[in-house]
Amino acid sequence: MKRRMFAALLLVSGSVMAQPGGVKPGTKPAPKPALPVLKTMNDSASYAVGISVANFYKQQGVSKLNTTLVSRAINDIMGNKKPLIDDNTANTVMNNYMTRLQQEKSKGAIEAGEAFLAKNKKRPEVKTTASGLQYEVVTEGTGERPSAEDSVTCHYRGTFIDGKGFDNSYDNGQPITFSLRGVIPGWTEGLQLMTVGSKYKFYIPYTLGYGAFDYMAIPGGSCLLFEVELLGVTKKQK
Hints:
- The protein is an alpha+beta fold and 238 residues long.
- The chain has helices at 2-13, 41-59, 67-78, 87-120, 185-191; strands spanning 126-128, 134-139, 151-160, 165-168, 176-179, 199-204, 224-234.
- Strands 1, 2, 3, 4, 5, 6 and 7 form a seven-stranded antiparallel β-sheet that branches.
- Strand 3 and strand 4 (165-168) form a beta hairpin.
């Protein structure tokens, strides 16, 4: 009985033969790799730069980078060495890369918008212009019609094709006034079809909206729906 208890105590203390995969008697465990230490302000700033860059591109949809080459580029520039590509080429590469990422991200929204517009176009009350803008007359006014150089005062409500709203002037309790040169192409074109007192519905493809790139709360490639009331026109002074 005493011999068994003694053996058990030795086993717990690690003084008897090791289990498979364990540390053999008389050997020291392998040292754990040392963790990076931010010893100086420069160390902390350097690491912070890495965090800032990584977070920025992660937010842009970049999920994978060759960090060895990222480090190489930083070392080349900071060490005044000739980089593998010049600034112009680097800008072109990044623009093409980010455009491709955004196109992949927006593909679903673009296809959904195109399917919606193709179906909506078949409704008899919907008219389609040469640009692809679709509109529907809810109420036809009798006032003047704006030109592209004018400013207009409107009430509006904007939604996505799933019916989810993203912006409207009614919540603010007052209409907005803006130049037709300062809005998306779908609005510039559509409002020139209206007369004061009219209320129209616009169905705007992404090409006449905010394009394939995300814009604030509007995902890239979104087809946008608007109900617009034209309340007034301010003619451009000559």
